[in-house]
Give the backbone structure.
Amino acid sequence: MAELFDLFITFFKIGLFTFGGGYAMIPLIQEEVIKNQWLDSVETLVDFIAISESTPGPFAVNIATFIGYHEAGVIGALFATLGVVLPSFIIILLIARFFHHFQTNRYVKGFLKGVKPVIVGILATVALAFVLRSTIHTDIMHLPDWIVDVRALIIFAGLFIIYRVFNRLNPIYLILISAVFGLVAYGLF
Amino acid sequence: MLIEIFLTFLKIGLFTFGGGYSMIPLIQREAIEKRHWIDNDEFLDIIAIAESTPGPIAINSATYIGYRLRGFWGSLMATLGVVIPSFVVILLVSMFFLQFKSNVYIAYAFQGIRIGVAILIFNAALKIYKKVNKNWFTYVMILIGLVLVLFDIVPTLLVILIGGLVGILHTIILHRNGGEDNGGTV
């Protein structure tokens, strides 16, 4: 029971502090995954993000359902999903009922003016951390321990060029291309 | 009517791939063009509200449209509708995911996929960056986010809260000095 309550509260917190779309949730989730030792490893989280691109629905619901199920079965999935959905649900109900000009309020705008650039910085850091983890098998706090993975570096360069050249490439295609790159680089060589 | 709200959002939830923003055209077709539940101006308002409140844009807009149509029960039905498809699909995926991952070729593929995901996350940062005003305040805030998280100084949740409070403070100071706040279009 305590575990279910923990899942609910943690995802409620995550839902409450996610501004700017589903991916803005990833840094918060990563932190909780490490802290609570969910999912065996951060790699499983990254793998699931890829899966989530090819399944329907909001990312937030997908990731809550996945972690909840992984930690405490179907009931766990239910508690985590309820947790991540409830903050939005309650806040929107209050706004629809009482505050019709919420989005033009000066302080709301001020809050977002500060939050959005901070999230840009946070997301860039998390992306960098994921790249380092794959290419030199370490994180920013342990840079002296790096081990260069040449294949991963080549994949990174290749994917980066493809993503720049094909503007607005559908994320699902990028995932598929990166899967093929991984298969070729690690399977054949 | 409640059943129609539920089914419409069930359909929207089932056919949205790749995050909340890909849901916008679908909501436009189902709720505006087909059913005339709301008009386009109202919809733009809803998007603006969804963007200024926490949580997934899909949940935010479903709750809001549902409430406009049939009050609390409308919002409950719309939200349930939009959540259930992904809940069910992910439950099924989760049941097979770990077995499926132990295959050696799948593991190779995921070595590549992890790098692809990093690029997608970087792209998400870029998308938000494109929408914020470019001024010294923004650059300082980006730097604050970067440094605090990079060196693991405070929990991420606190970094977000600090960002919001500094933003409010900046607005108050600008206002007190009688200056026009030009950083507000987010």
User: Anything to note?
Assistant: The radius of gyration of chain A is 19 Å. Chain A has two domains: 2-148, 149-189.
